[in-house]
Design goal:
Layout lengths: L24 H17 L3 E5 L2 E5 L5 H9 L5 E2 H10 L7 H13 L3 E6 L8 E5 L4
Antiparallel strand pairs: 1-2, 3-5, 4-5
Helix pairs in contact: 2-3, 3-4
């Protein structure tokens, strides 16, 4: 059984068409107000928390990134950590956002790059969490 639209295969969408209903005006008005509130906040990042779409700080996922690096207890390639975050933690964000946050954590010295492969794509860096040192 699917609980989220992201779990429905594109070729199966048509099977849900007979279930469609017209949304009542009160529901449309409610979601329009929610969207208006989010537009006024003009936040950089939104996350779904307890089924609510909320504006969160850009640092919101940093703890999860560091925690994932720390689980390995050894140097690990950035791409592997990003893959783990996307698959195991199901954070629902783009890999380029995770890469940008990792770059930020490197700049702030919360992560340490111990080897960088200059001739490979930018995800092929060996990184180590400073929490392990």
């Amino acid at each position: 059984m699917n609980h989220l639209w992201s779990e429905v295969a594109p070729e199966a969408f048509f099977s849900y068409l007979p279930l469609q209903q017209v949304a009542p005006p009160s529901l449309i008005q409610y979601y329009a107000q929610c969207w208006h509130t989010l537009q006024e906040e003009n936040g950089s990042l939104r996350a779904i928390i307890n089924n609510n779409l909320l504006t969160v700080p850009l640092t919101f996922y940093d703890f999860l990134i560091i925690k994932t690096f720390a689980k390995f207890h050894k140097p690990v390639v950035e791409a592997f950590v990003i893959g783990k975050l996307l698959s195991k933690e199901a954070v629902g964000i783009h890999d380029t956002f995770l890469h940008a946050r990792i770059q930020f954590l490197l700049q702030k010295k919360l992560l340490k790059c111990i080897e960088k492969a200059e001739d490979k794509p930018y995800y092929d860096k060996l990184l180590l969490s400073d929490y392990l040192m």
